[in-house]
Amino acid sequence: MYEPIRTPSVHSPADEADFPHRSREEELDIQLAGHLAALLAVTDELGLGPAGDRIAEQVARLRGAPPARHAALTDAAPASLHHRAHALAGRALVVAASRADTTAAILSAQRMDAHTEALAAAAPSGHLVGAR
To answer: How far is residue 76's CA from residue 79's CA, in Å, rounded to a whole number?
Structure first.
């Protein structure tokens, strides 16, 4: 009545594939290093040398090699750079917490606080722009 299946299903698992697989931890390391490298670029553009050095240490630890430091300037307003840095530090904090990387989580939280303070100091009324 039915003809037997002659070819393997496309829905069968590809256990015998010849491509490398990364573990969840390796994927989180890559993600965290990427967020921190982006934060490093903005931090360097803001001219925050010591903070940039601490971030660069963490990127080097995660990647196994020192990161390239940001050399070009975008002429963006400092407030927008602080907003961008705050968002990047927040993303790094989420990944660091997921990865249980205490050092990177503490550094990310400290950077978030520093950028929040910089934004508050720059706001004329003492409040964050857009905050209610």
So the answer is: 8
H helix and E strand count, the chain? 4, 0
Residue-level pLDDT at 50:
96
Cα 60 from chain centroid (whole Å) = 13
Taken as a whole, the chain contains a residue count of 132
The answer to whether the predicted template modeling score (pTM) of the entire model surpasses 0.85 is no
The amino acid at residue 66 is P
First to last CA, the chain: 71
Helix axes 102-122, 49-63, angle to 10 degrees: 150
Mean pLDDT by 10 residues, the chain (132 residues): 69 63 92 97 94 97 91 85 97 97 98 96 66 48
Which residue is it, tokens 């990647």? 63
- At 86, phi and psi to the nearest 5? -60, -45
DSSP-assigned states of every residue in 8-37: --TTS--TT-SS----HHHHHHHHHHHHHH
Residue pointed to by tokens 């070009």: 72
